[in-house]
Structure formats: C-alpha cells, structure tokens
Design brief:
Blueprint lengths: L5 E5 L12 H14 L3 E4 L11 H15 L5 E4 L5 H10 L7 E5 L8 H14 L4 E5 L1 H4 L5 H10 L3 E6 L4 H10 L5 E4 L5 H6 L4 E4 L6 H12 L3 H20 L4 H10 L15 H13 L1
Parallel strand pairs: 1-2, 1-8, 2-3, 3-4, 4-5, 5-6, 6-7, 7-8
Helix pairs in contact: 1-2, 1-9, 3-4, 4-6, 6-7, 9-10, 10-11, 10-12, 11-12
C-alpha cells in the first residue's frame, strides 16, 4: 500500500490526426511523468478516453505503458463498469501482468442503492487477483458512495486497500479519513482539494493536472505529507488557475490542450468529446508559457 502514497497520475491516451493511438506520444507522456517524480501511474481510467477504445487499442495502451515504464513505477489499471458480472469477467480474462492494483469505479447510470454498491464491490473483491482501489465520482456516476459503505467494504475485504474520493466534498473526505481502518488509503480524486485532503490525513492523489506538471504537483503532495504547509500552499496557489482551466470544458479536453502547448502531444479527441474553444486554448497557452 505504501506504493500508492503520494501522487498517481491518470494518463491520457494521445491520438494522431487519424485518431489512431499515438504510441510515441504515449511513451513521451510516461517518461515526462516518471522524470517528474510521480509515485505511480494509472492506466485506462476516464482520462484515457477508455470508453472509446477498442479491446485491441486498450491492450496496445497497456503494453506501451508497461514497456515505457520498464518496472520503474507501480501501475494501476482501470477495471470497472456498471455490469458487475462483466467486471468480474474482465478480472478473470484480462491480462493483468505488469499491474500492481486495479482502480474500479462505482457503478454508473444504474444508480444502485448503497447496498447495491456494497454487493458490487463485494463480488469484485472476491474475484480480483490484485488489490483494489474503489473510485467514487458522483459527477460521472450519478450516485454517491457514502462513507459508511466505503468503511464497511474496507473492514470486510482486506484487498480493498483504498478509495479515490472525487465527490468534491471535504466534509465527506474528512469523515472517510476519520473513520477508516488503519492503513486504508483515502486518495483525492479532485486536484483542487488535494492539498487540504492530504493535510487532513489523506494519502495523496490520483491527478489529472499532475501529469502536465508532475514535478511541481508531486512535490506539493510530498510537502503536504511532511506537514510543510506554507511551502505546499505556495505550489498549490501557483497551479490553481491551471486546474480550474483544464476542467472548465471537460476532461480530458483541457489536459490534452495543455499537453499540446507543452509540446508533449497533440490535442486530438474522439467523439463525443471535442476540443476546447479558442479562448480557453489561448489561456492555457499563456499559463504554460509563463509557468
């Protein structure tokens, strides 16, 4: 579990103009983050546009990252969905070699009860060969995984090692931190409140902005974990504008636009996602230039 204390980054999937996977650009993104000092990499999450990738493309992304990483950092693989038995099938059939844990989102669209959410993750925990980080993101799932449900899972299944908490609610995050069993990781899924969550006792972050500015963001988290509050907040406020901008017109449109201005990859997206508008692009370019 110590592998997942600090900064993880939710990697994008770069595309070429013809919308095929840009393997060379993905290798650059991986190297940019490893050299930047992040603690681990998250593969095929929401930010990777996984919903628009074929199975063959998903395998290409996985193998590209495994090879580029070359065992330097722990890898977390996104394996989730709103069909419990399909997720179980993925866990039984997916090639999980090279990965250290899975990140599994709370079921979306179906809007299950808290008991339904518990039973979903119970089934996953009983079938997963890897440790599990559950993922609460009500803005995408339309249901909130409440602290009581999370703590129940944490107590009942030792292979559920943490939660990526992205409700954007500090009160809920603090309740998780207050009531969690020892060793259970409460990981921020919201870049803007990462530092307050860390200072409240959180374990770190799975970040989007961190993959653009890995050196600065991971240093901020480390300073927070060391309780060097003033130094950490200096970085937080320096980065704040970019966090707000990359989510202003949706993820990963904003972060891909920022990567374009940083010269790491192009900003191509697959429908139904579209590029950010010219005004936001110009503001991101200005931020990148002056950062």
């Amino acid at each position: 579990m110590k592998s997942f204390i600090g900064t993880g980054v939710a990697l994008i999937t770069p595309f070429k103009k013809d919308l095929s996977v840009d393997v060379e650009a993905l290798e650059r993104v991986v190297e940019h983050n490893i050299k930047g000092g992040v603690e681990y990499l998250v593969v095929l999450g929401t930010t990777a546009e996984t919903a628009t990738l074929t199975k063959q493309e998903q395998e290409l992304v996985k193998q590209t990252i495994i090879k580029a990483n070359n065992k330097r950092l722990p890898l977390v693989l996104g394996v989730g969905g709103n069909n419990t038995m399909d997720v179980v099938s993925q866990l039984n059939e997916e090639n999980l070699k090279g990965f250290d844990a899975i990140l599994s989102v709370s079921p979306y669209y179906n809007k299950p009860t808290q008991e339904g959410i518990y039973q979903h993750f119970k089934m996953i925990a009983e079938n997963s060969p890897l440790p599990i980080i559950v993922y609460n993101v009500p803005g995408r799932t339309s249901s909130n995984m409440l602290p009581n449900t999370v703590i129940r899972l944490a107590n009942d299944f030792k292979n559920i090692i943490g939660i990526k908490e992205a409700a954007g609610d500090m009160v809920q995050a603090m309740e998780l931190i207050r009531t969690k069993p020892e060793g259970f990781l409460v990981i921020s899924g919201d870049d803007i409140i990462t530092l307050p969550m860390v200072l409240a006792g959180g374990a770190g972050v799975i970040s989007v902005i961190g993959e653009a500015f890995p050196k600065e963001f991971s240093e901020m988290v480390r300073l927070g974990l060391q309780r060097k509050v003033d130094e950490a907040y200096q970085i937080h406020y320096r980065i704040t504008d970019s966090i707000n901008m990359i989510f202003e017109q949706g993820n990963p449109g904003g972060i891909k636009e920022l990567f374009k201005h940083l010269g790491i990859c192009e900003n191509y997206l697959r429908l139904p996602l579209v590029n950010v508008n010219e005004d936001l692009s110009n503001r991101l370019a200005s931020f990148a230039k002056n950062f």
